[in-house]
Amino acid sequence: MTSQAKAYAAQSASTPLAPFSFERRDLLPDDVSIDILFCGVCHSDLHTARSEWDGTIFPCVPGHEIVGRVSAVGDEVNNFAVGDLVGVGCMVDSCGHCPSCKESEEQFCETTGFVGTYNGPDNVLGGHTFGGYSDHIVVKQGFVLKIGHDEKDLAAVAPLLCAGITTYSPLKHWGAGPGKKVGIVGIGGLGHMGIKIAAAMGAHVVAFTTSPAKIEDAKKLGAHEVIVSRNADEMAAHANSFDFILDTVAASHDLDALTGLLKRDGTLTLVGVPEHAHPSPNVFNLVFKRRSIAGSLIGGIAETQEMLDFCHQHGLVADIEMIDMQEIEGAYDRMVKSDVKYRFVIDMASLKA
């Protein structure tokens, strides 16, 4: 027994997303069925739908920043009830028994890899998973998250399920907090949440932008200082001073200018995934100050819940622009031009049209 879902899907890399119907699985004993209210639009959605990353399986229904209301639960579900406000992020399953999964780091699952909310293997129905650009979704309860924010903020909560955890996890892991000077590179969907979260953690936050026009915006988001990265004098004034820099830029760029700003033992962590590799970094920049270049990938389910609770406690949500499902192609085109402050979110009620 299955349920029919209405959605928007890409049928190929070169065709626009269009209405699509498919089958969701019937509830298993530990499943939660969720009526999707809002779904954020991540740059990963565009990369996948347009096959800019390897491995896209068509038809592709993107969407992994999902907020909705529980409509039904399986017989063994004990953490959720009908009517609860919940979220689903970038993954819907993992092996559950490898060292990473046992340590609540399911995003690093060592056996099968995590199962993506879309474009991952569907271990129940076969084929591949379909994401949040749809009217409902069925997810095992271990990958469903509780949302404590007010209902009026739900649309702006949706991007926390990817942009929020992608920045929260490295900021926490590398110890952002009082007494630490933290840089956030790029003021977009990820970067604007990085600024908000780092400031709420108590760090001294410095935003990096290539655009002087974004200086005031960065300060409104919580940055204490803003560096225009194309200004050599501004960059030089901060040499050897950062404990940690989070680089959210998803385009290939020179990392040496950033590693040179780190203190001894400082870390530059990359969360943006460029289409083409970054130029090789200068090794001398690293060895003479014991600096590190690292990477980070979303966060585990427990840490994602922790992030949502932290954001609720501190009154943090994303800055969003709401769109109808039918406007997705225009949103993708604007996203390529960085013409959004700072995250598109789809009102899934528009699917009924």
Q: In summary, what is this structure?
A:
The chain is α/β, with parallel strands linked by helices and 353 residues long. It has helices spanning 43-49, 99-102, 154-157, 163-173, 189-200, 215-221, 232-236, 256-259, 283-287, 301-314, 328-336, and strands spanning 2-9, 18-25, 31-41, 66-73, 85-88, 91-93, 115-116, 136-140, 145-146, 181-185, 204-209, 225-228, 242-247, 262-270, 292-295, 320-324, 343-347. It folds into two domains: 2-162 and 299-352, Quinone Oxidoreductase, Chain A, domain 1, CATH 3.90.180; 163-295, 3-Layer(aba) Sandwich (Rossmann fold), CATH 3.40.50.
Features:
11 helices; Quinone Oxidoreductase, Chain A, domain 1; 353 residues; alpha/beta; Rossmann fold; single chain; 6-stranded parallel sheet; 7-stranded mixed sheet; 2 domains
Could you outline the blueprint of secondary structure elements for this entry?
Elements: E1 2-9, E2 18-25, E3 31-41, H1 43-49, E4 66-73, E5 85-88, E6 91-93, H2 99-102, E7 115-116, E8 136-140, E9 145-146, H3 154-157, H4 163-173, E10 181-185, H5 189-200, E11 204-209, H6 215-221, E12 225-228, H7 232-236, E13 242-247, H8 256-259, E14 262-270, H9 283-287, E15 292-295, H10 301-314, E16 320-324, H11 328-336, E17 343-347
Parallel strand pairs: 10-11, 10-13, 11-12, 13-14, 14-15, 16-17
Antiparallel strand pairs: 1-2, 3-4, 3-8, 3-17, 4-5, 5-9, 6-7
Helix pairs in contact: 4-5, 4-10
